[in-house]
């Protein structure tokens, strides 16, 4: 029986028309698929390029944000604050120690140097008074390295124009005095501002540092 | 090897057309069904050529797809203007089919689907049990039992014509 089955099947062939039509359809489909893959490729490429562009945008935005944050931090660090030294300034209680309760009495001369935790006077100090706004700033320059209110030198200095500058404020007799100190060309500068704003005080310091 | 890129569709159609057509004939109710299956198989080859692992894989793939298309066609219940099978075959093939040939074919065709493919591949394409199991993704034991069962059923149907002699 196997031979009958084989014999029957051997006679079965697809017609030439069927073959031809199938080949035509298959080729057409193949071409379509190829074109659609090219389109798909182009679309994917566009998406990828868009992605790259988006990535660039993201990177730019991120970098800009970081810059802003960095600038903010820098500015915050650079921000000048006048530390309140009223409580931290200690007035020593000793006969051997010269002290001045009134910090503003810097013009008092003092024979000999007496170093205190509170104040150091330098009789050789040069004094300059700078008018600023409604008040005045007294600029004392001295060869001594630690003139003025010693508590000021315990604060964290700010760097201005490469110089370490100490800023502070002190309230005495209901008056606020702004203080600043720095060393320039081996001379100690000590500033006391009375009735001036922090902005005016800072501007004076910057001017002196420019000179 | 990227089979998809190297595929010469026309060449493959020419090479496997008889095999696919004959298997389609086993599954299609009519000649038109067989032609539909035939065309669908090669169009699927174009569509899914990326799935081909190697050129050797093509033959088995075509056989499996032909069987699947045959099942799909049956499920869809595609209706063509039908002629009695004998007239259909004689008119279109141009060959004179002997009565016995047609009877044997018809009985094989009337078997449940799972036996048809196995019998056809075994007796006509002369596949081994192992090749059939790989092609149809069935266990060898399953193929053996299906082959045996198919022969048994054929034997019962065609036993009268061939007496008590071994049917296949």
General description of the model:
The complex is a heterodimer of chains A (211) and B (168). Chain A is an alpha+beta fold and 211 residues long. Chain A is 40% helix and 25% strand. Chain A has helices at 2-10, 16-78, 198-210; strands at 83-84, 119-120, 126-132, 135-142, 148-149, 158-160, 163-172, 175-184, 187-194. In chain A, strands 1, 3, 4, 6, 7, 8 and 9 form a 7-stranded mixed β-sheet that branches. Chain A has a two-stranded antiparallel sheet with strand order 2-5. Chain A is rod-shaped. The termini of chain A are far apart. Chain B is built from 9 helices and no strands. Chain B has 168 residues and is mainly alpha-helical. In chain B, 35% of the residues are buried.
Structural class of chain B: mainly alpha
Helix count, DSSP H or I runs of 4 or more residues of chain A: 3
The biggest sheet of chain A, with number of strands, parallel, antiparallel or mixed sense and barrel status, is: 7 strands, mixed
Rough shape of chain B?
globular
User: What's the mean pLDDT score of chain A?
Assistant: 79
Largest interface, and how many residues on either side?
A-B, 24 and 37 residues
Could you spell the SSE succession of chain A in H and E letters? HHEEEEEEEEEH
| Ends distance of chain A | 120 Å
Please give the number of β-strands of chain A.
9
The average pLDDT value of chain B, as a whole number, equals 80
General form of chain A: rod-shaped
Poorly predicted segments of chain A: 91-117
> Count the strands of chain B?
0
Poorly predicted tracts of residues of chain B: 78-94, 164-168
Instruction: Classify the helix fraction of chain B into a percent range.
Output: over 70%
Q: What is the alpha-carbon Rg of chain B in Å?
A: 17 Å
**Quaternary structure state of the chains depicted:** heterodimer
Distance between the termini of chain B: 41 Å
Secondary-structure element string of chain B: HHHHHHHHH
């Amino acid at each position: 029986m196997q031979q009958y089955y084989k014999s029957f099947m051997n006679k079965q062939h697809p017609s030439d028309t069927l073959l031809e039509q199938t080949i035509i359809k298959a080729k057409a489909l193949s071409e379509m698929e190829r074109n659609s893959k090219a389109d798909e490729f182009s679309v994917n490429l566009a998406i990828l390029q868009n992605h790259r562009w988006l990535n660039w945008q993201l990177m730019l935005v991120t970098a800009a944000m970081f810059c802003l944050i960095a600038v903010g931090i820098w500015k915050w660090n650079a921000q000048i604050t006048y530390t309140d030294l009223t409580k931290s300034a200690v007035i020593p209680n000793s006969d051997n120690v010269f002290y001045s309760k009134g910090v503003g009495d810097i013009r008092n001369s003092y024979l000999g140097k007496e170093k205190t935790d509170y104040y150091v006077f330098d009789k050789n100090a040069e004094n300059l008074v700078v008018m600023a706004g409604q008040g005045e700033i007294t600029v004392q320059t001295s060869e001594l390295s630690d003139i003025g209110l010693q508590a000021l030198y315990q604060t964290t200095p700010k760097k201005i124009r490469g110089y370490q500058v100490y800023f502070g404020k002190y309230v005495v007799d209901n008056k606020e005095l702004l203080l600043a100190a720095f060393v320039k060309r081996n001379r100690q500068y000590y500033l006391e501002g009375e009735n001036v704003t922090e902005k005016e005080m800072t501007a004076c310091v910057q001017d002196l540092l420019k000179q | 090897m990227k089979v998809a890129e190297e595929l010469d569709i026309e060449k493959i159609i020419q090479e496997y057309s008889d095999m696919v057509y004959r298997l389609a004939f086993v599954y299609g109710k009519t000649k038109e069904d067989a032609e539909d299956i035939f065309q669908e198989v090669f169009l699927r080859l174009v569509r899914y050529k990326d799935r081909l692992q190697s050129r050797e894989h093509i033959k088995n793939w075509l056989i499996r797809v032909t069987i699947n298309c045959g099942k799909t066609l049956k499920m869809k219940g595609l209706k063509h203007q039908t002629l009695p099978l004998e007239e259909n075959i004689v008119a279109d093939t141009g060959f004179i089919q002997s009565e016995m040939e047609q009877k044997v074919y018809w009985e094989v065709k009337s078997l449940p689907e799972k036996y048809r493919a196995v019998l056809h591949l075994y007796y006509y394409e002369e596949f081994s049990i192992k090749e059939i199991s790989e092609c149809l993704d069935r266990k060898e034991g399953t193929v053996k039992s299906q082959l045996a069962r198919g022969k048994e059923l054929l034997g019962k149907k065609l036993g009268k014509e061939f007496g008590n002699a071994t049917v296949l």
